[in-house]
Amino acid sequence: MKIRASFCHLLIVLTILKTGCLYAQTTAPSTRKNVSQGAMDRDLLEVTIPQLEQLYRSHKYTVTQVVRWYIARIEKYNGIYRAVQNLDAPGALATAAREDGEAKAGGASFVRGPLWGVPIVTKANSTAYGRTGNAYDVRFSPGGSSGGTVTAVTSNFALLGNGTDTGNSIRMPAATSSVVGVLPTRGLVSIAGIAPLDWLLDNTGPIARDVTDAAIALGVMAGEDPLDPRTTGSAAKAQPGPYTQYLNADALKGKRFGVPAFILEGAGIPFQGMPASESVKEVTEDTAAARVPLRPETREAFMKALEGLRAAGATVIFDDSILPDSFAVTVARVATFPYVREGTEKFLAEYGPTTLLSGKVTA
What we know:
Layout: E1 10-11, E2 16-17, H1 37-44, H2 49-57, H3 63-81, E3 84-86, H4 89-106, E4 118-121, H5 147-154, E5 160-165, H6 171-176, E6 180-181, E7 203-208, H7 211-221, H8 234-237, E8 256-260, H9 280-289, H10 296-311, E9 315-319, H11 326-332, H12 337-351, E10 355-357, E11 360-362
Helix pairs in contact: 3-4
């Protein structure tokens, strides 16, 4: 999940999701001619899932044409943003051709899945190709470790993607680029197959340009998975989908938010907490090291965000009495280091290249 390196790239398999499964077919891609590049740029830049669905429904573009458009952007701009590590163009085009064939064969009665024909990017922790730049200004970081997904989505390399989060790895990168990142309740979405950093905290969720797209993607990702025990029974516990039914422009009216004042002083906690074995002196030193005062421009942006909540009808309580400054210190003593080894060993046993069992090595 979240890695200790400052920057993270993206392993990308530009494929098409129909019902939550990735396809890799070998059918030859279909083509349509006489399509204006300018028209495609106008239609597809910042396109949303519902808008793309309408373009498909009206037969303005094929999936193959849309995928080729995204591939062309990656080939043209990835040298600048460096968000994409690996591009499976043949697999993506083969999948697109297959889905175009399905749509043609289905005719007017063809039913598209929630993410049918939607190009996505998939995150992987590996900084093999250097740093990723923020799409708004490549001199700055998009944040980690889901910065690759965030920059890919913001740069229109794909319509949406996924992120993984252990300490802040979906939320912080999404904030740097004004996109929507969802950190779901643990157990709503399976984390099976995701390289762990701390399986007690590890999570995954969608990253999209707007709330509607994120809600659509979350509905596809959510569900029980026998490979992740924490998802057992989630279908009965979670709010039923589709999640778009819960979107409400007036949702913040009447809501109350508490903002502990010490946040603006930069009080934080060391990642994964402090072991109980640490001495008082070590705790004091770690607490001081975790304190990062906000820069003036960051403070200003934060305060504007609070005003945005108020403007949307919420009540914001900003006071020292909400939580004492010592709260961060108390929470920091909840250390999760033991879960790192446990999660890693379990992951390697299930997904590693080889497994040593009873003296036998099996692939």
